[in-house]
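Hi team,

Filling in the usual template for the complex we talked about on Friday. All components are listed, including any nucleic acid strands or ligand strings, so the model treats them as one assembly.

SUBMITTER: L.P.
PURPOSE: interface mapping
COMPONENTS: two
RESIDUES: 527
SEQUENCES:
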Amino acid sequence: MLEIDNLSHVYGGGTPNAHHAIEGLNLSVAEGELLCIVGPSGCGKSTLLRSIAGLITPTGGQVKVEGNVVKQTPDNLAVVFQDYSRSLFPWMSVADNVALPLRRRNMDKKQREDAAREALESVGLEGAARKYPFQLSGGMQQRVAIARALAYRPSLMLMDEPFGSVDAQTREDLEDLVLKVRGHHQMTIVLITHDIDESVYVGDRVVVLSKAPAHVVGDLKVDLPGPRDQITTREHPDFVHLRAEVGRLVRGHATV
Amino acid sequence: MSAQTLTSIRPASPAIRWSRRAAGAVAFAALIELISRTGLADPEFLPPATEIAGRAVTLLADPAFRAHALTSLLAWAIGLAIAALVAVPLGLLLGSVPLVDAATRSVVEFLRPIPSVALIPLVALVIGTGLQHRVALVVYAALWPILYNTMYGLRGVDPVAKESLRSYGFGPLAVLMRVSLPSSAPFIMTGVRLAAGVALILTVSTEIVAGRGEGIGVFIFFAGIAVPARMADILAGVFWVGLFGVAVNALMVAFDRRVFRWHHVQRGEEG
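RESULT (copied from the run log):
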């Protein structure tokens, strides 16, 4: 599904202030997988995501989505950014925000509106379609951003610290929402986070990055019994063990 | 906190705000009345406010004055519309293609500080003193506030918003039209509002300098060169121009508050 091959990216290459964000990063994600990428702050996670999305051209290596080398944004990809208040368009109603990217699909107005309504329903916001983003809470705005991505029916959804700007309770609700929608939609999800617990709770697999220049230092399969639950999963010995392991990997490379 | 302090920090209701403004206007008129009646200023140069007001009302019933007003209104509206139609696309171009901006900057920086009023005689020589004269000068003067506000608005467009649309595979033109333009629209609106005032100044000034044909400025010009000068006519004409300016501004502010509410909320101007 997603192949990252010896990826490197340098900002301001050739200048004394050159910043090596990523160096020699290899990663492959299987179809339908929910991969969480964790790493210390400022380690190049967002650069990695922007390279996958084709928003920047990496200075070295390549990214392949469904076998095609990414040169510009792939058609079958959607991104959910951390800053919902900046990534939603404030001059449009919630429904119009969700429907806008569908102009890239071969859909008439009616189809776009229907798809938007359906996506809003799936995130529990059917009542907010006519509202404007500024009339919603932060958690609801991020639900709108998720609905916008879902309506687009991507085969790969990238999430860049999607719950970094909401309170703890909302965060847990949104984590469960992601788990729910991935069950309904056939898609691969790559979720970037700096929250170790979150990565283990949400992911099928957790990849740990080193501090910048980022490369993979750990790759763990998350094998937890039963459907995930905010209380029982988090108290399960395997969960506790895994989060400790991820924590050691993150810390070990953050403090060097 | 007591109910009384809450009332005092709450912004005044529209009714209260309007009555305050009206009180100010009445006080100003009373001052003119007083100065004129007491002979502090020669009533021939400053007629009492009641006389100016009376003249303003009778002028409205005068078909000749109404024709003057309509001519001015037409020049103002056409000029402002053309200015907006030229300045917004130009601003989008200069604001989004750095190369074009750099190439034209010296010309723009040279033209901008030229007072448009100084061009009135020159333009008259080139294209005559009809409607086209007024429109040309209005366009020239009204262009700048709209152009600069459009470019300013574009500079402030959130990169995350642009990236969001790009991430769905939209190209640069779609990003410009669907994100940058609507995001800058409140700034463009401010530019148009400022330009509306500038356009009014240019309309009347051009008419006064041209001194022929129709227009409020022409009416004021002839009232001024009459012997003795018809001061009440001049001031009544000025009153109507001023009132029009205030009304247009108020309408545009109301439009801005309504249509661009998302913008004002985001900037914390209202809850």
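MY TAKE: Chain A has a mean pLDDT of 88. The longest strand of chain A covers residues 19-29.

Thanks, L.
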